[in-house]
């Protein structure tokens, strides 16, 4: 994968031509005081101006809990009786372009794509969570069988890059103990929720805590679909690290 081509269309990257697209997107994503930081991050995306203008960024009103575009509290979150996630935030809508690009990254581990997706997560962090003092970053783990098939956990690669950018340590808190069917093979939200029951166990690594004994964990994944996976992870963390914690999730796609 050449370094001078756009990841969106394969065309040549012309920094001068994409300047207006960078300024426009950075201005939509950040306040005036944070614009310089956001501009630098957006300018570093390996996209041409046309593809950057077509990036499916979630900019409108969204659910305060899960980040779904629309009302302040979506119907799914309204019906949850025991919420384990403080909130979820996602940067992009999941479309066919995103699906193809993410699939390439998952199964080929392209270095340019790792840098691209990590930068998207960094942009999402500065947009939504910059004011929160996180004690550590952790990821949704793969089951050992799936990890052996794929060779790596793509979210772990992104976590390491995000940690380097933000100065927040990464901790491997969870182990996937239950092999579940792919989302496309499960019949609806209820089946997904049931399949994630008991899917994770504690890895034994200590969660850093502040002087009061509370803690904040940033939980990473690539896609938020029903939220069942992330909530199952959060439930396991709270059960083992103690109830005085707050788990926030961050994903690239929604």
UniProtKB/TrEMBL annotation:
Q: What is this protein called?
A: ComF family protein
Q: Which InterPro entries does the entry mention?
A: ComF/GntX_DNA_util-trans, PRTase-like, PRTase_dom
Q: What's the domain of life for this entry?
A: Bacteria
Q: Which family does it belong to?
A: Belongs to the ComF/GntX family.
* Annotated source species: Brevibacillus nitrificans
């Amino acid at each position: 994968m050449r370094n001078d081509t756009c990841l969106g269309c394969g065309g040549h990257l012309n920094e001068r031509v994409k300047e207006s697209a960078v300024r426009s997107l950075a201005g939509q994503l950040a306040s005036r005081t944070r614009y310089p930081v956001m501009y630098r991050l957006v300018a570093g995306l390996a996209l041409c101006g046309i593809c950057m203008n077509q990036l499916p960024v979630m900019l409108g009103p969204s659910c305060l809990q899960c980040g779904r575009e629309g009302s302040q509290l979506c119907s799914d979150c309204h019906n949850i009786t025991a919420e384990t996630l403080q909130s979820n935030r996602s940067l992009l809508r999941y479309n066919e372009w995103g699906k193809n690009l993410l699939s390439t990254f998952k199964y080929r581990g392209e270095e340019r794509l790792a840098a691209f997706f990590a930068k998207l997560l960094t942009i999402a962090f500065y947009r939504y969570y910059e004011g929160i003092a996180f004690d550590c970053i952790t990821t949704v783990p793969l089951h050992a069988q799936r990890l052996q098939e794929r060779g790596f956990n793509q979210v772990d690669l992104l976590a390491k890059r995000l940690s380097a950018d933000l100065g927040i340590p990464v901790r491997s808190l969870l182990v996937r103990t239950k092999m579940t069917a792919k989302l496309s093979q499960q019949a609806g939200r209820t089946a997904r929720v049931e399949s994630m029951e008991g899917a994770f166990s504690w890895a034994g690594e200590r969660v850093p805590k502040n002087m009061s004994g509370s803690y904040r964990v940033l939980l990473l994944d690539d896609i938020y679909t029903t939220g069942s996976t992330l909530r199952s992870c959060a439930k396991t963390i709270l059960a083992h690290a103690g109830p005085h914690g707050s788990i926030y999730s961050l994903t690239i796609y929604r």
